[in-house]
Each structure stands twice: as C-alpha cells, then as structure tokens.
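ok so for the tutorial part 2 we go from a plain amino acid sequence to predicted structure tokens. step 1 is just haveing the sequence, like this:
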Amino acid sequence: MGWTCQHDHKGYCKLLKKDCLPGMKGCILKKSEYIFSSGSYEEDKKRDDEKKEQDIDFAALAKSN
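step 2 — the prediction. this is what the tokens look like for a chain of 65 residues:
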C-alpha cells in the first residue's frame, strides 16, 4: 500500500513552505505513528526488528514471573 501526503508537491511541502522531510517539526505525519522507508528492504526490516526489541516492557515482564 502506498500514498503521498496531500501537502507534498514534488518534494516541496506546501504546508510548511520548505523541502519535504516526513516527520520534521510541523509535519502532519507523526514519526511515532508511521514508518518511513529508507528504500532498502533489509535496512527497514533491521530497523523494525530493533524497534520491537526496544518496545518490550521489562517491568511488566518481571512482575509476571
């Protein structure tokens, strides 16, 4: 699935009136809610795996044992 931001026009953000950089301050896309591809499947997969490891709630895990 793919889509583009409604404010992006050929790499220029019409909302912020500067070059488009998804997730920058003022961008309507929040970095925590979206994954921006680097263009490399392997790098994206590695980054996703690292993020999943960081999301572990170790305090809850310790309480459950």
